[in-house]
Amino acid sequence: MVKRIFKMCPEFEDVMPEEYKQLVEDGPYGREKGVTDLGSFKELIEEHPLCAGCGLALSLRLIIASIPVPEDTIIVGSTGCSSLLFPQVAIQNIHSIFGNQNAVATGLKRAMKLRFPDKTKDVVVIAGDGATADIGLGMVMQSWFRREHITTIMLDNEAYANTGGQESGMSYEKKVLNMAPTGKKFPKICLPEVAREAGCDYVATVSPGKPKRVQNAVRQAVLTAREVGPSYIQIYSPCPTNYKFKSNQTNAVAKEREKEGTYRMVEYVSDKARDYFKQFKGEEKHAKCN
Ligand SMILES: Cc1ncc(C[n+]2csc(CCOP(=O)(O)OP(=O)(O)O)c2C)c(N)n1
Ligand code: SF4
Question: How far is the CA of 256 from the centre of ligand 2 (A)?
Answer without folding.
Answer: 19
